[in-house]
Design goal:
The chain is mainly α. The protein has one helix at 5-22. The mean pLDDT is 79.
Length: 28
C-alpha cells in the first residue's frame, strides 16, 4: 500500500513526538 506524501509526513510527525515523549522532552 502506497501512502500519500501528506500521510507519511503526518506519521513521521507522530513518531517524532512519541520519541520526544519517551525522552521526557516535549518539542512540538
Amino acid at each position: 500500500v502506497q501512502k500519500s506524501e501528506m500521510q507519511r509526513k503526518k506519521d513521521n510527525l507522530e513518531l517524532h513526538r512519541n520519541e520526544c515523549l519517551d525522552d521526557g522532552i516535549i518539542n512540538v
